[in-house]
Amino acid sequence: MKLASYAVQENASLGRVHLEPVEPTQSGRSPFQRDRDRIIHSTAFRRLEYKTQVFLNHEGDHFRNRLTHSLEVAQIGRAVARRLNLNEDLVEAISLAHDLGHTPFGHAGQDALNDCMKPYGGFEHNLQSLWVVDFLEERYALWDGLNLSFETREGILKHCSQKNAQGLGLLGQRFIQGTQPSLEAQLANLADEIAYNNHDIDDGIRSGLLTIEQMSEVSLWRDQKDIVDKTFPGLNGRRLVYEVVRHIIHILVDDLVKETQRRIQLSNPLSVEDVRNAKPLVAFSENMREQATEMKRFLFKNLYRHPQVSAMTKNAGEMIGSLFQHYEKHPTDLPFDFRPDDETYRRISHYIAGMTDRYANKEFHKLIA
Ligand code: MG
After folding, report:
1. Cα-to-centroid distance, 41 and ligand 1 (Å)
2. How much distance in Å is there from the Cα of 191 to the middle of ligand 1?
3. Could you read off the pLDDT of 156-171 as tens digits, one per residue?
4. How far is the CA of 276 from the centre of ligand 1 (A)?
5. Is domain 29-367 in CATH 1.10.3210.10, yes or no?
6. Which of 1, 174, 264, 298 sits most deeply, having the most CB atoms within 10 A of its CB?
7. Domain-wise residue ranges, the chain
8. Is pTM, for the whole model, over 0.90?
């Protein structure tokens, strides 16, 4: 497939931090295919299986975890990349890596770690994901991290505070100058949103915390359910949920493709450089943006802030807080060879962020409870 001129080209990467002895062409894989393969083989990637997305890992075998979430993001991202003639391998690599820096216990874990790290500048999960691939993975004889291409790292660092961006060289520039990342990075970001909105509806209904009736508050659901009801009269239960969710994903993807094509036509970028200096080009139409935001708000209020979810996550957050305090008092309980040259608070933060839900639980019961 020929890539569009504004896609990231295989041979035009801004490169890796460490020069590599084997040239990409000799391995038969493009730089971004190599990035994707390194991510899949990383330890942090395997840990995603035991990290909470919304529902704690042990609550049921069918709920999403960070691994299945990341696979769904990659699937949606790749499908859209193909339709837009963007670099599918790059979108896949970014999607698979985008949550590597997430703490155990979902947002509760992240908020708790952020609180603990307040005196030291806080905890940013996007930056943590970058640190995982830049130096926390230990797989190579010659360097720390996975030594990924600039464009993959750029996509992984979705947000970054101005302060942290200062220390990141070229990678931090766009947060200081207010420019955009590649279309592939913009796409991975929206694929993430499409994936979690839809799978959270599915998981929410599966868990019983959301009901099909209640979903009719959301216009996207209502419209698509009408279509499904007309096509399959009398359909109910799980198959109804799947059909409606499938329809919603389809119209979100379709809108995203069309609006992005429209913006590309208007802005007429001829290169990645043009893309970086343009307004965001991968986007929903205004109408779809409103509906997607309505759905997000609904999920926030009715699922993420559901008393049952809040109760589970409150415990989890307290566990992270206690672990942090424990390691501060007893740094010798950290593995002695884990980032020995870092400041203690940073070692603790890296260590806790890397934990799976069940490992954090085990450590908590071993050291504290
Ligand atoms: Mg995500």
Report:
1. 19
2. 9
3. 999 999 999 999 999 9
4. 23
5. yes
6. 298
7. 29-367
8. yes
